[in-house]
Amino acid sequence: MKKKLVLIVLFIFPLVAYLFFASGVNNFGRLPILTEQISDITKLDGTATLQDKITVLGFLGSDVEKRKGNAFNLNQKIYKRFHEFNDFQLVMLVPNGEEESIEELKAELGQLSATDKWNFVFASPKEIKTFFSGLKTNLSLGDDFGTSHVFIIDKDRNLRGRDDDEDLGTKYGFNTTSVADLNNKMEDDMKIILAEYRLALKKNNADRSK
């Protein structure tokens, strides 16, 4: 009897687990597109782009000190988890005049992890408001032209999110104030979009080899 239990644990359970997760990949293999073809940040900063990148996009606002906790949460729960993927980047839009505050923030983040894929794009408040409006979400910027929410942008500059979220219905962004939101939802959605591109790459490579 004990031998049978050992065999079940060693062979049957892993097989069931594999089938379960394989089914999950098939059923949840794509993250819904909520807004198509948002503007590229090259219009604000000629050195940065959203095109051909998997981007976590945020709006840090003019009170950088107030949102440091949000940046640290994002760094620990999302950035450190995914920053080694080649096409991944994190982009924060910041009002002009906050350059010194951003340098301080980067120094503090650098004590926790490499910051090579943290990108800060400076623009006027009007430009930031216009860019945010182009996301076409049900969220809004604060008086400081920032928000605690961040957004997932794919390589074709589409905003990805959830259209069947159990709490919100349509979920455009992820609240960096909430560790639970980052852990339980955003991390899962990042895994989905990265898996989607990995599968597409494997398919393209297989097609070329035929």
If you had to describe this structure to a student in words, what would you say it looks like?
With 210 residues, this protein is of the alpha+beta class. It has one domain: Glutaredoxin (3-Layer(aba) Sandwich), CATH 3.40.30. The protein contains 5 helices and 9 strands, in the order H-E-E-H-E-H-E-H-E-E-E-E-E-H. Strands 1, 2, 3, 4, 5, 6 and 9 form a 7-stranded mixed sheet that branches. Strands 7-8 form a two-stranded antiparallel ribbon. Helix 2 links the parallel strand 2 and strand 3. Helix 2 packs parallel to helix 5. The protein is globular, with a radius of gyration of 20 Å. The chain starts with a helix and ends with a helix.
Keywords:
210 residues; globular; 44% helix; two-stranded antiparallel ribbon; alpha+beta
Gyration radius (Cα, Å) is 20 Å
| Termini separation | 49 Å
CATH class: Alpha Beta
Quickly count the domains.
1
CATH fold title: Glutaredoxin
Count the strands?
9
Which architecture name does CATH use? 3-Layer(aba) Sandwich
Give the helix tally. Answer: 5
Order of helices and strands: HEEHEHEHEEEEEH
Which bin fits the share of residues in helices? 40-55%
